[in-house]
């Protein structure tokens, strides 16, 4: 989160009209904005300013939005809303699976983007304010502040989304969490039918977790969702 009174949003799009419309609505809702027109400008901005959210065009002149999203998520837990002219469900799911927190198709309603942005900013604030930032469970340690995961004290590299999902599971041990709950609490939006995004991230997490003597496991509950429990 930024240290200023108002959250700061980075708008990265190569069309001036997008900047003008979003800036007007964000600032009228007490959200400060900064502008970038290329991926490299956006990455430079992030080095010098702590942003609370990024609105990111999928098609940028120097790098795809998917690529820059993955680069950002390796180091930062900043929520990202994709903007895209592609409205197919496949494109939306790919964007979310690659680290995006929400996906809005063009042409869009600036008011809707602001509402979605505020929900994501509130979600991140809730995560940082909601009690312990480091949680442990049978050999698994998740630090939400540093976006770090350890298995038996050995660090496991994961994306911000993967860490956030694990943090949600470890914050609710033994509890069965359905996919809609996970979408709402980790992605930060209400259920739109993209439960496959949850399954894809769980699959990636499982592949990254090493074989060890730790006794935790992510358990699938058929037809419902997942829970963090102990190995049988």
UniProtKB/TrEMBL annotation:
It holds the Pfam family Trans_reg_C. The modification 4-aspartylphosphate is found at residue 57. Residues 8-121 form the Response regulatory domain. GO terms for biological process: regulation of DNA-templated transcription. GO terms for molecular function: phosphorelay response regulator activity; transcription cis-regulatory region binding. GO terms for cellular component: cytosol; protein-DNA complex. PROSITE patterns: OMPR_PHOB (PS51755), RESPONSE_REGULATORY (PS50110). Residues 132-230 form the OmpR/PhoB-type domain. It comes from the Bacteria. Keywords: DNA-binding, Phosphoprotein, Transcription, Transcription regulation, Two-component regulatory system. The keyword Transcription applies. Residues 132-230 bind DNA. The keyword Transcription applies. May play the central regulatory role in sporulation. It may be an element of the effector pathway responsible for the activation of sporulation genes in response to nutritional stress. Spo0A may act in concert with spo0H (a sigma factor) to control the expression of some genes that are critical to the sporulation process. This is Stage 0 sporulation protein A homolog.
């Amino acid at each position: 989160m930024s240290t200023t009174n108002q959250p700061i949003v980075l708008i990265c799009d190569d069309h001036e009209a997008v900047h003008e419309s979003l800036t007007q609505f964000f600032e009228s809702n007490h959200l400060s904005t900064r502008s970038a027109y290329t991926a490299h400008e956006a990455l430079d901005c992030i080095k010098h300013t702590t942003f609370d959210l990024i609105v990111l065009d999928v098609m940028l002149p120097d790098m795809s939005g998917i690529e820059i999203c993955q680069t950002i998520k390796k180091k930062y837990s900043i929520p990202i809303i994709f903007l895209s002219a592609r409205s197919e469900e496949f494109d939306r799911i790919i964007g979310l699976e690659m680290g995006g927190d929400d996906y809005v198709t063009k042409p869009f309603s600036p008011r809707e983007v602001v509402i979605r942005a505020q929900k994501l900013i509130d979600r991140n604030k809730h995560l940082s304010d909601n009690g312990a930032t480091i949680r442990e469970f049978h050999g698994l340690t998740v630090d939400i502040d540093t976006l770090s995961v350890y298995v038996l004290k050995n660090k496991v590299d994961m994306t911000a989304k993967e860490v956030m999902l694990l943090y949600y599971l470890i914050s609710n041990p033994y509890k069965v969490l359905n996919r809609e709950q996970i979408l709402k609490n980790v992605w930060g939006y209400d259920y739109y039918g993209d439960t496959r995004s949850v399954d894809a991230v769980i699959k990636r997490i499982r592949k990254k977790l090493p074989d060890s003597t730790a006794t935790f496991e992510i358990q699938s509950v058929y037809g419902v969702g997942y829970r963090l429990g102990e190995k049988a």
